[in-house]
Amino acid sequence: MNVILIAVIVLGAIGLLASLVLFFASKKFAVHEDPRIGQVSEVLPQANCGGCGFPGCSGFAAACVKAADGGSLEGKLCPVGGQPVMEKVAAILGLEAAAAEPKVAVVRCNGSCQNRPRIVEYDGAISCRVANATGAGETACQFGCLGCGDCVGACKFDAIHMNPETGLPEVDEEKCTACGACSKACPRNIIEIRPKGRVVKGSARRVWVDCVNKDKGPVAMKACNVSCIGCGKCVKVCKFEAITLENNLAYIDPEKCKACGQCVNACNVRHAIHATWEVPVPKPKTEDAPAAAPAAPKAEAAVEAPKPAAEETPKAEA
Amino acid sequence: MKTFRIGGVHPEENKLSADQPIKVAALPEVAVFPLGQHIGAPAKAVVAKGDKVKVGTMIAEAGGFVSAGIYSSVSGTVQKIDTVIDASGYRKPAIYIKVEGDEWEETIDRSEDLVKTADRPDLTPELIVEKIKNAGLVGMGGACFPVHVKLCPPPGAKAECVIINAVECEPYLTADHRLMLEKADQVLVGVDLIMKAVKVNKGYIGIEENKPDAIKLMTEKAQAYPNIEIVPLKTKYPQGGEKQLIDAVIRRQVPAPPAIPISVGAVVQNVGTAYAVYEAVMKNKPLFERIVTVTGKSLAQPSNFLARMGTPMSQLIEACGGLPSDTGKVIGGGPMMGKALMNIEVPICKGSSGVLIMNDKEAKRGKASNCIRCAKCVSACPMGLEPFLLATVSAKANWEKAEAEDITSCIECGSCQFTCPSHRPLLDNIRIGKQTVMGIIRARNTK
Predict the structure, then answer these.
(1) What is residue B6's three-state secondary structure?
(2) Domain limits, chain A
(3) Measured between beta carbons, which residues in chain A are less than 8 angstroms from residue B340?
(4) B428:A123 CB<8 A
(5) Which of A123, A160, B31, B338 is most buried by its number of CB atoms within 10 A?
(6) Cα of B436 to nearest chain A Cα, Å
(7) Which option is the CATH number for B25-99: 2.60.120, 2.40.50, 1.20.120, 1.10.3470?
(8) Is it true that A102-193 and A197-318 share their CATH fold?
């Protein structure tokens, strides 16, 4: 009996002592975490994609709380959750959500099997990174899509797929969250995250140069039927100074672009500019037929018909 | 017989052109000189369109310390400075020269007389390095590292011996083999000059046993040079790797990077480089021509050419009887480390040791299947790495793990991929991993 009593007392004393140590330790070394981080974290999608630029959703939550202490959530955007989620986050933190334009990934290459002839056969590892380092790809274009699908593998939202007919990736606008994982995975920097654009008649309107080829005109022309040859016609027709020409390649600044579609019509020989809607083709002025109205007279693009291109201007100096 | 201690494979040798004497290749119509044909900064063009040049005229100067000048291999007029698709498959800046006649710079000694080191007592180590630098010399084995950089040991390091790489472990290639048979005396003077430049009195020439005629001839000729020893080596790939050769010849192992061969007291140069050193120092001849093996099982006449730089590879293939109808791939270099070419108009550069034409059957890569954990790649790796692991972590972009597993030690010899029974693209992935990790390390060091 005595033995049991001693054991109970000794163990009880040790337990009491240990609990006291733990109690003081928990007070002394307590890590204070802002409870708002947990709350914000809960409304985030938990995709941990890193599209926001922070390591995972809890990292983003911590950054939002820190930014909220500074008084503004500007520049913070969860690309997956988008505006609704940012509004929830702002509500938790007692702030207004900064208005952010919805974005989407665009593939800037139209070098499909028909447009860009295959000149060699690549039989290395099926990876764009490897193909890019091993050689220039299967076509004469050293800038365009390699078609091994690194972007498809990088997408966590099943939003980008290879089209077996064209051999090019296609973005599902509904599913794309503009997290930018595909853009980072592409060794040739073909995929760009651009604003979705103004919504007209239920569809977002955006325009981009569907090519990244920086070769001089004649070389680019030979490599692909729809390459940008840097002729600069689009630069001339743009009324908003949204298009710049650098290294034999045009680029449309999405901030300045008003999606008027003038450039799409200007690039009527190469068809290197892509628009998400059907841009009405203006009637050539020589055809004196005002009665025949254009198919979509309301479209802004038709406000002023661009002058028919004088002649194909190949790239500047050789 | 000596050889390196870790790993290695023995691919079929296929030295088809070993009996073919070196032929002088015809001059091209237009010679093309890419500005980046060596490791380090690309050269800077010093000629403009319309300039007249002679054979041996400098057309581009070194773009930094680790860089090398480029000299015209032809006489004629600079046609344009444009781009050319080089062996990498990408367009790179290059100088085009239209060939007119064959007029050489007067400073070049074109006689066949052998000049020995004893005939030139004025040659100090500094002068030798200076002359090598001014001749645009780079390692002729394929990596194209500027020679003068290797001959100036970094502070604290001291060279103890010179090892000449004459193993030519790549299957098919016979350029070094023929060079030793036809220019043995000049090669030995070249070795002597390199030894003098780095101030050592011990030189080794490592030759694989599959070249018995070269071993015999070189041993005879080396009688006159008591400090130069000919070391016959067991035929095993990749014996021509710098670290493998040092291990095979002097039994020392170079530690993992950033250690370099000089850390264990060795300076390694290719036998072709030794010959180029002789020509540069004794004959004032810059590096503008080299021996190129053009070979392949289906090729009508595999040959060894003395070709001027800038000659399109297609011209050499034509001289061997033209591209066979069953051509599967054209490789720049040997079958193990060479690179498949996208375009056979690629010009011969300082590092072009060979052009290999593979037939359809040889060229076909097996279909990759799952890793069966046989560890053949681990046994074959001459650097003692685990290729299956490196390839997997590279494919998964796990760069921390790749660095921890010493991916930067990989010498890209391809033994792992050669030996893999599942035909897995091991080296393809490891190469990407190595490049990325090296980039990460560089970024970290500059921070």
Answers:
(1) coil
(2) 37-93, 102-193, 197-318
(3) 134-135
(4) no
(5) B31
(6) 11
(7) 2.40.50
(8) yes
Inter-chain CB proximity B91 and A142 less than 8 Å = yes
How many angstroms separate the CA of residue B302 from the nearest CA in chain A?
24
| Nearest alpha-carbon partner for A154 in A132, A135, A179 | A179
Reported confidence tier of residue A307, pLDDT bands at 50, 70, 90:
very low
The shortest CB-CB distance from B428 to any of A130, A137, A318 is to A130
How close is the nearest chain B Cα to the Cα of A247, in Å?
A: 14
Angle (nearest 5°) at CA A65 between A62 and A71: 150
- Cβ–Cβ gap A130/B88 under 8 Å: no
Query: Could you tell me which CATH class the domain A102-193 is placed in?
Result: alpha beta
DSSP one-letter string for B247-267: HHHH---PPSTT--GGGGTEE
**How far, in Å, CA of A95 to CA of B86, rounded?**
58
Compute the nearest-CA separation of A125 from chain B (Å): 6
Q: Which pLDDT does position A286 carry in this prediction? A: 56
Please report the number of interchain residue pairs, chain A to chain B, with beta-carbon separation below 8 angstroms: 47
Of A134, A135, A215, the CB nearest to B91: A215
Query: Given an 8 Å threshold on Cβ–Cβ distance, is A142 in contact with B89?
Result: yes
Interface contact A136-B342, CB threshold 8 A: yes
CB contact under 8 A, A120 and B429: no
CATH of domain B290-363: 3.10.20.600
- For residue A282, name the pLDDT band (cuts at 50, 70, 90): confident
Determine the residue of chain B that is closest to A214 in CA distance.
Answer: B91
CATH 3.40.50 holds for A37-93: no
Task: Place domain B117-283 in its CATH homologous superfamily.
Answer: NADH-ubiquinone oxidoreductase 51kDa subunit (3.40.50.11540)
Q: Which residue of B has its CA nearest to A141?
A: B90
Give the pLDDT confidence of A82-141 residue by residue, as tens digits: 778 888 888 888 877 666 678 899 999 999 888 998 888 888 888 999 999 888 888 989
pLDDT tops 70 at residue B276: yes
A135 contacts on B by Cβ (under 8 Å): 88-89, 339-340, 342
| Residues B137/B131, Cβ–Cβ less than 8 Å | no
Report strand pairing: B91-99 vs B52-53. Answer: unpaired
What CATH topology corresponds to A197-318?
Alpha-Beta Plaits (3.30.70)
Q: Is A26 helix (H, G, I), strand (E, B) or coil?
A: helix
Q: What is the least distance, in Å, from the CA of A156 to any CA of chain B?
A: 15
- C-alpha closest to that of B285 among B72, B45, B75: B72
List where CATH 3.10.20.600 sits in chain B: 290-363
* Residue A276 per-residue DSSP state: S
**Closest in B342, B364, B429 to A135, CB measured:** B342
Q: Do A136 and B368 touch (CB under 8 A)?
A: no
Given an 8 Å threshold on Cβ–Cβ distance, is A136 in contact with B85?
yes
Give A145-191 pLDDT, tens digit per residue. Answer: 999 999 999 888 899 999 998 899 999 988 888 888 899 899 999 99
Under 8 Å between Cβ of B197 and B162: no
The residues, ordered by sequence, that sit 6+ positions from B58 with a Cβ below 8 Å of its Cβ are: B46, B69, B70, B71, B72, B136, B286
- Residue extent(s) of CATH 3.40.50.11540 domains in chain B: 117-283
The structure's pTM equals 0.82
Separation of alpha carbons B68 and B144, rounded Å: 10
User: B110-166, pLDDT tens digit by residue?
Assistant: 988 888 888 888 899 999 999 999 999 999 987 889 999 989 888 888 899 999 999
Distance, in Å, from the CA atom of A269 to the CA atom of A290, rounded to the nearest integer, reads 25
- ipTM of predicted complex: 0.85
- For residue B309, what pLDDT is reported? 94
Chain A residues within 8 A of B368 when measuring between CB atoms: 125
